[in-house]
């Protein structure tokens, strides 16, 4: 009777307040179900027939996050300031641990093990967070609006598009693949950016073996179908080639003994070596191991065209000779490109000739107010010391004498190193302890009465900008940027009153925050056969089985939830005991 009374009250409430019916959600789970009820919000206003989603609490400023990748999720997990209302917009409602995507392609790890629903991540936070599964179509920075389109293929009565207002915008949408306008790549190649890509590759690999096992297929076609081509000698391409080699030789040869001798894996790299971003010792070991394993490594081969059955390569070492290579499946894993709506936004803010959104050292998009960009879609436009050298000298020269005394430049040394990270990199490259050692090359600063004029000051700092480098487009960089930006928002009110950043050399006072500083924690390159190459801070290189176990421990610990950790470790254990799953699902 209580149950009937409850439903009777709910039914009466919906008749009295029809708008509340939109907030009743019935979720069926394994034949059962539960009812979730939330307080109804006002109907959205309409502007040009497009709903506009306003913030619920006018006292709170609204942060809109575009994307649920490494950058966006790291920001979300570390944001603790309850004075903000957060709206997440992304075409996928989960976070994916992308470094394990190559493992998903061959069944070493299941796709469900490396994804975590965004709603699980935010449900225990003390910050008001809302999520919309939609794709961003346009950013209107002038009016602080985001135009979106629902990612759900349902009949929404013409309300698939909507507009979201914001006070702060954080762009963390990652990047597209970059085909370099090579003909046929988009139509015929696989990519490895999303979980769906990994699942598609896994099905295609199994399909190739099943097709080659058919009695009506000729030997020539079998060789072509079982030829797997990997374009790109970076970490993704190398790891996929290694995973595929292990999958074939440890599992598939037992299931398809009739075609095991026809399988061939080719890795194509336009440069002279694979893994160019790693230490030369790792590069040499990887190349030698691939040769021992029978993986055909072709360096200096640039892909110029791809058809449904053939890859055309230009051999850079042989005078540009074009060769043709038949294949059954091709993976394109080289380069990243800009998403279309980001290109439009870049044109709006005067960055139309760039490849990625340019931000300052505080991750703010140049030419915009209260818009930030983090992750693969952005790059930090670090200011050069020599661009500000005159302003730095004027700020340090407090008595306007035209020279810097020992006390005057000692006061600004810390601010210079903090504001311009290339100074610290230059000192490290020259094995100098601090900036005083750098100034000693120009004048004897050990004595307090020595003074530097502006020309001597310029000479001392003239070479530090040579150490400026763009940050790599990696999950590690994106995650650190997300954490940094979240900490800034957590301390926003406090930093307004008590700035903690370096001196404003071109203005008054101090910056609110210290600029973003990337800390490299090392990188891995799994090479198959339970061997991994690790390059850790301090130029420490480790290659072999011990590094593989280090890789296991690091990647398990970096999962965003205990559920993911348990699932990933279970998958690894299952693979050790029973092998990889070769079923086509």
Terminal Cα span: 46 Å
Task: Note the beta-strand portion.
Answer: 15-25%
Q: How is the CATH topology of the largest domain named?
A: FAD/NAD(P)-binding domain
Assign the CATH architecture of the largest domain: 3-Layer(bba) Sandwich
Please give the count of helices.
Answer: 19
- Tell me roughly what share of residues is in helical segments: 25-40%
Q: Let me know the average pLDDT.
A: 88
* Spatial strand sequence of the major β-sheet: 3-4-11-10-9-6-5-12-23
User: What is the domain total for the residues?
Assistant: 3
**Helix/sheet category:** alpha/beta
Shape: globular
Name the poorly predicted regions: 1-7, 13-48
- How is the main sheet built? 9 strands, mixed
What integer value in Å does the Rg equal? 28 Å
Keywords:
585 residues, alpha/beta, FAD/NAD(P)-binding domain, Recoverin, domain 1, nine-stranded mixed beta sheet, 19 helices, 35% helix, disordered N terminus
Question: Helices and strands in order, then pairings?
Answer:
Layout: H1 2-16, E1 24-29, E2 32-37, E3 45-47, E4 50-53, E5 61-66, H2 70-78, E6 84-90, E7 94-96, H3 101-105, E8 115-117, H4 118-122, E9 128-140, E10 145-150, E11 161-165, E12 168-171, E13 176-177, H5 185-188, H6 195-212, H7 219-225, E14 227-231, H8 235-255, E15 264-269, H9 280-293, E16 296-299, E17 301-306, E18 310-315, E19 321-326, E20 329-332, E21 336-337, H10 340-348, E22 357-359, E23 371-373, E24 378-380, H11 389-396, E25 403-404, H12 406-419, H13 421-429, H14 435-440, E26 452-453, H15 454-461, H16 475-490, H17 492-497, E27 523-528, E28 531-536, E29 540-544, H18 545-557, H19 562-578
Parallel strand pairs: 4-11, 5-6, 5-12, 6-9, 12-23, 14-15, 14-20, 15-16, 22-24
Antiparallel strand pairs: 1-2, 3-4, 7-8, 9-10, 10-11, 13-21, 17-18, 18-19, 25-26, 27-28, 28-29
Keywords: Calcium, FAD, Flavoprotein, Membrane, Metal-binding, Mitochondrion, Mitochondrion inner membrane, NAD, NADP, Oxidoreductase, Peroxisome, Transit peptide, Ubiquinone
EC number: 1.6.5.9
Protein name: NADH:ubiquinone reductase (non-electrogenic)
């Amino acid at each position: 009777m209580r149950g009937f009374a409850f439903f009777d009250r709910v039914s009466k409430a919906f008749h009295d307040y029809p708008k509340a019916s939109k907030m009743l959600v019935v979720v069926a789970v394994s034949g059962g179900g539960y009812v979730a009820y939330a307080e109804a919000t006002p109907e959205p206003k309409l502007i040009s027939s497009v709903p506009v989603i306003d913030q619920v609490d006018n006292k709170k400023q609204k942060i809109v996050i575009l994307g649920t990748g490494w950058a966006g999720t790291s920001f979300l997990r570390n944001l603790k300031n309850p004075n903000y209302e957060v709206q997440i917009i992304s075409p996928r409602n989960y976070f994916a641990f992308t470094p394990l995507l190559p493992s998903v392609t061959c069944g070493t790890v299941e796709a469900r093990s490396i994804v975590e629903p965004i709603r699980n991540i935010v449900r225990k936070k003390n910050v008001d967070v809302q999520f919309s599964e939609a794709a961003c179509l346009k950013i209107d920075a002038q009016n602080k609006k985001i135009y979106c389109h629902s990612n759900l293929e349902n009949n929404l009565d013409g309300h698939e598009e909507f507009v979201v207002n914001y006070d702060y915008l954080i762009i963390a949408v990652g990047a597209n693949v970059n085909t370099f306008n090579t003909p046929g790549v988009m139509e015929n190649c696989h990519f490895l950016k999303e979980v769906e890509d990994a699942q598609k590759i896994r099905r295609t690999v199994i399909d190739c073996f099943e097709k080659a096992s058919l009695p009506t297929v000729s030997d020539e076609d079998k060789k072509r179908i079982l030829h797997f081509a990997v374009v790109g000698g970076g970490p993704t391409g190398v790891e996929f080639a290694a995973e595929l080699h292990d999958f074939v030789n440890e599992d598939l040869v037992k299931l398809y003994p009739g075609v095991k001798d026809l399988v061939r894996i080719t890795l194509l790299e336009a440069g002279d070596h694979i893994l160019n971003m790693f230490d030369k010792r790792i590069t040499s070991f990887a190349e030698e191991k691939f040769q021992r394993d029978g993986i055909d490594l072709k360096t200096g081969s640039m892909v110029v065209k791809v058809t449904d059955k053939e890859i055309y390569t230009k051999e850079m070492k042989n005078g540009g000779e074009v060769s043709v290579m038949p294949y059954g499946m091709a993976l394109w894993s080289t380069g990243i490109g800009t998403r279309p709506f980001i290109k439009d936004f870049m044109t709006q803010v005067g960055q139309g000739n760039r490849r990625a959104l340019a931000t300052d050292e505080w991750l703010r998009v140049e030419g915009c107010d209260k818009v930030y960009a983090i992750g693969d879609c952005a790059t930090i436009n670090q200011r050069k010391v020599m661009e500000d050298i005159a302003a730095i000298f004027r700020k340090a020269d407090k008595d306007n004498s035209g020279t810097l005394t020992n006390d005057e430049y000692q006061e600004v040394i810390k601010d210079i190193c903090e504001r311009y990270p290339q100074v610290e990199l230059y000192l490290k490259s020259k094995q100098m302890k601090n900036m005083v050692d750098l100034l000693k090359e120009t004048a004897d600063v050990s004595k307090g009465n020595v003074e530097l004029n502006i020309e001597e000051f310029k000479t001392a700092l003239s070479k530090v900008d040579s150490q400026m480098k763009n940050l790599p487009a990696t999950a590690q960089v994106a995650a650190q940027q997300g954490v940094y930006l979240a900490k800034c928002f957590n301390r926003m009110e406090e930093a307004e009153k008590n700035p903690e950043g370096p001196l404003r050399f071109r203005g008054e006072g101090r910056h609110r925050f210290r600029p973003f500083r990337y800390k490299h924690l090392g990188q891995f390159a799994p090479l198959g056969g339970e061997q991994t190459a690790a390059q850790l801070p301090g130029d420490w290189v480790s290659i072999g089985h011990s590094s593989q176990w280090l890789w296991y421990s690091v990647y398990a610990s970096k999962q965003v939830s205990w559920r993911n950790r348990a699932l990933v470790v279970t998958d690894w254990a299952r693979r050790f005991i029973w092998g990889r799953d070769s079923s086509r699902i």
